[in-house]
Each structure stands twice: as C-alpha cells, then as structure tokens.
Amino acid sequence: MSYISNDIDLKDLRHKHPNDISEVICELNPKERILAFLLLPGDLKAEVFTYFNHNVQEEILKELGSTETANILENMAPDDRTEIFENFPDLLIKESINLLSPEEKSIALNLLGYPEKSIARIMTPYYIQVKKGWTVTQALENIRRYGKKAETLNHVYVVDKENKLIDDIRIGKLLMADEEQTIESLMDYHFVSLTTTMNRDEAIEQFNKYDRAVMPVVSEKGVLVGIVTFDDIFDEIERRDTEDIQKFGGLEALELSYTETPLLTLVRKRASVLLILFLGEMLTASAMGFFEEEISQAVVLALFIPLIISSGGNSGSQAATLIVRAMAIKELGIKDWWYVMRKEVLSGLMLGLILGTVGFLRIVIWQKAGFYNYGEYASLIGLTVGLSLIGIVLWGTLSGSMIPFLLQKLGLDPATSSAPFVATLVDVTGLIIYFTIAASILSGTLL
C-alpha cells in the first residue's frame, strides 16, 4: 500500500523533511496514522517520531509491538529520547526502557538520573574524543570509525587518561594540520564547558556569551560525559520564552503546549491567577467606597476614573515589560535597581506631563467648544485630572520597574510581575492618588 486516504503518496512523503512528514501523518485519523507511520522506512521512523507531540508519541508506542518500539527508541538520539520519557507515564517509561539494548538502556537511565532541569538531561553521549599524544592521522581514523554516530563533528574533544576534558579542537583546524603533527601541538588549552548539574537557563547564557554551536558537558570533577548542541538549546529558549510570556500574561505556565493541554488544566491554570486579580480589584471598589462622599458631591469626577486608572496601569505594564525582558537577557541585574529607578522617575514624569497636558486640554477645549458642560469649575477639574495623571503615571512607571527587582531579590521569577498584577496594584493606588488630589484642589468648590 503506497497511498493513505487516497491522497497521500508515501513514496513522495519519504523525500520530505521528517518534521513535514510528522505534520502530514498527524492530520490522519488514529488508525491511518499508525499505518502510515509503520510504512515509513526503519531509519526514518525514529527521526519522524521525535517531531510528534507527546500525545501522538504515546498513542503510537501503545499500538506498536515491542520489537518495533525497541527499534524506534534504539535509533533515536539520547537527548530526544530523554525528552520523550519526561512526558510519559511512569509505567510506559519503565516498559520502554526495558526494550532498549544494554548500552542504550544504560545511557537512558543515566540521563534520567540527573536533576529535571539540568543541562545533562538534554545532552548526547555521542561525540568524538581524542588523546593529546595521538597524531592527526590517528585522530582522523577515529573520526572515520565513530563519526557516523556522533551528534556533530564541529569539534573533537581532547581528554587525559582519566577522561577529563583538557581542550577542544575545531575540525577545520584538524583537517588543515600536517598528518604527522600531534594533537598536543594543536592545543591551546582554551575551552569552555558546561557542568552536568548546570541549570538549562544558565547554559543558555553560556551559549549566548561564547557564541558556540556546540558545547561539551563535564562532571563536577571535569570528566567529559556528553555534548549539547545549539538545536537542543534553541528548544529550551523557546520553552523558557513561552513560559515567561504566559506568566507575564497573567496565568500559570503550561507544562504542555496550548493544543495538548486538557481543558480542565487550562481552566485551573487561568482561574487561580484570575481569582487573585479579582480579589485585588475588589480593593478598587473599596477605595471608591471610601471616597463615596466626594463622588456624590462631584459626580463629574467619576467620568474620568477609567481614564485615570488605565493610564497608570498602561504605564506600569510598559515599564514591567521593559525591565523583565532586560533582566531575562542579563542586561540588568539586582545591582542596577537604583539606575533604573532614577531613569524611570524621569520617564514617568515626562510621560505623565504629556498625558496630563492632553487630559487638561481635552477638558478645557470640550468646555469651550460646548461639547460637554463641566460647570463653572471646568478649569479646576482639568487641573485635577492633569495633576492626577502626572502622579499616577509616575507611580505606575515606578511600580512596574521596581516590582521585578523585588521579586528577584526574594528568589522569585520576575516574569510573575505580569501586566495584570501591576495594573491591579496601580488601579487601587491610582484611585487614592486621584481623589486625594481632587480633595485638595476642589475643596471649597465642588467638594
């Protein structure tokens, strides 16, 4: 059978990129999906399998026989296989690992034994290592012997008798060297590496700092145990940024993608934060209740409440976004809080003056043009709104910029100082600022 669903030619499909093949297969119904996957060539199955989402991977493994499953898992890169196991039920992990050959089973168990977020979980043990006493000819022979299984051939890694990493050499430098030269003659002993227990976020920083496509991973004692490629790190960058965006949007980070997350889990992740924000916004009603007398005496003040609190929330959200991103890329650290505060005070004042001026002119012009009658004290109302905007925008800017530093100081993720949280805080305090200024300016007139 070369056709599935009468419109998919498997012969044409085999010439596509594995990711494209996985997308086509995922569009099929479950029964045809299994059949199409089984009809792929053996060496292609493992590559395509890594691009399926976790639900499809689990579905296929449950349908396949033990021999077919073993072949797929055996031919997968160790880091891809570890990522799959992390999202499988414990029973399926145990059954799958037991199908592997002794060598691959040992590798799988070793990778799963490292801390969950450590860089070692995504490393591969397939690389080329050489000894410093070897000649270039011996090193090239070693590459020809083991290179097919290596994840990448960008570098060869020089180790001592105890397998400790002592240098790395670019493959281009090795190819251009004289065949009788020793590896030691090509060494400069300048190399960078990651440790097995290093957090993945720290590893991302190292890749960015040294601009490397691949980095070796060593144990705490310096023993070379694997390598991590930029492809693996790029996946981690995407996950981290997605998590930060979700937190900044005012919800708990999702463990799976949006399409894979069950409805009840999605509701739970969103409801918890929404409830906290709702309780926070209830303080806004309390603040308005506290100034009920002022509102009743000058109802016109209520017209500008949405304008006042939204301006403060927007300025706070802008500041929080800028600072959280700057902290994420290590442009700013906790020690920079004073620099940021000084800069944001000036920014807040300037932005407040712009909005305050526009607010004041809007009221005065509307009154003069007859668009709306604010009464005989229109200019004072305009002054109240203008000064309130200056104070509230300044406060929102300071809040949005300082909260990320406070959270980081407390050991929390700055991304949780999301726009909704900053906006809620500024809503409540903004009303207090607004009515306090109104009481000062309008006392003896409207109030």
Protein topology:
Elements: E1 3-4, E2 8-9, H1 10-13, H2 18-26, H3 30-38, H4 42-49, H5 54-63, H6 66-75, H7 78-86, H8 90-97, H9 102-112, E3 129-131, H10 136-146, E4 155-159, E5 165-170, H11 171-176, H12 183-186, E6 194-195, H13 200-210, E7 214-218, E8 224-229, H14 230-248, H15 263-290, H16 292-297, H17 305-328, H18 337-369, H19 378-409, H20 419-442
Parallel strand pairs: 3-4, 6-7
Antiparallel strand pairs: 1-2, 4-5, 7-8
Helix pairs in contact: 2-4, 4-6, 7-9, 13-14, 15-20, 17-18, 17-19, 17-20, 18-19, 19-20
Write a structural description.
It is a single chain. The chain has 447 residues and is mostly helical. It folds into 3 domains: 3-113, MgtE N-terminal domain-like (MgtE N-terminal fold, Alpha Horseshoe); 129-238, CBS-domain; 263-442, Orthogonal Bundle (Tetracycline Repressor, domain 2). It is built from 20 helices and 8 strands. The chain has helices at residues 10-13, 18-26, 30-38, 42-49, 54-63, 66-75, 78-86, 90-97, 102-112, 136-146, 171-176, 183-186, 200-210, 230-248, 263-290, 292-297, 305-328, 337-369, 378-409, 419-442; strands spanning 3-4, 8-9, 129-131, 155-159, 165-170, 194-195, 214-218, 224-229. A hairpin with a 5-residue loop joins β7 (214-218) and β8. The mean pLDDT is 80.
Low-pLDDT segments, ≥5 res: none
Major beta-sheet overview: 3 strands, mixed
End-to-end CA span: 86 Å
CATH class of the largest domain: Mainly Alpha
SS field, number of helical segments? 20
| CATH fold description of the largest domain | Tetracycline Repressor, domain 2
Task: Quickly count the domains.
Answer: 3
**How many β strands by DSSP?**
8
Q: How big is the Rg? A: 31 Å
In sequence order, what are the helices and strands, one letter per element? EEHHHHHHHHHEHEEHHEHEEHHHHHHH
Q: How would you describe the shape?
A: elongated
What is the residue-mean pLDDT, rounded to a whole number?
A: 80
CATH architecture of the largest domain: Orthogonal Bundle
| Beta strand % | 5-15%
Main-sheet strand order equals 3-4-5
Helix-and-strand structural type: mainly alpha
Supply the CATH superfamily name of the largest domain: SLC41 divalent cation transporters, integral membrane domain
* Helicity, as a percent range: 55-70%
